[in-house]
Amino acid sequence: MSEENPTSHWHLYLLECKGGSYYAGITNNLEARYKAHVEGKGARYTRANPPLRMLASKPYADRSAASIAEARLKKLAKADKLAFFAD
């Protein structure tokens, strides 16, 4: 499944999954990516831990910026991840 579309913004997103865990990812089609996770066609982690809801998302100008933000987010403690989206 290709999600590349040069005219769209990239998004960093945070899902709450079954069991209370969080999953973070990036995409340039937020709606389609969330649907894929819900349908069990997304990441391996969300196939095993289905998403309950999207907690937050934040747009970025390009894939590189979104990837850098994702790496920063994943280094944070769970308690600090939601606050990351307030910046």
Automatic annotation (TrEMBL):
Coiled coil: none annotated. InterPro entries: GIY-YIG_endonuc, GIY-YIG_endonuc_sf, UPF0213_domain. It comes from the Bacteria. Pfam families: GIY-YIG. Residues 8-83 form the GIY-YIG domain. Belongs to the UPF0213 family. This is Excinuclease ABC C subunit domain protein. It comes from Methylovorus glucosotrophus (strain SIP3-4).
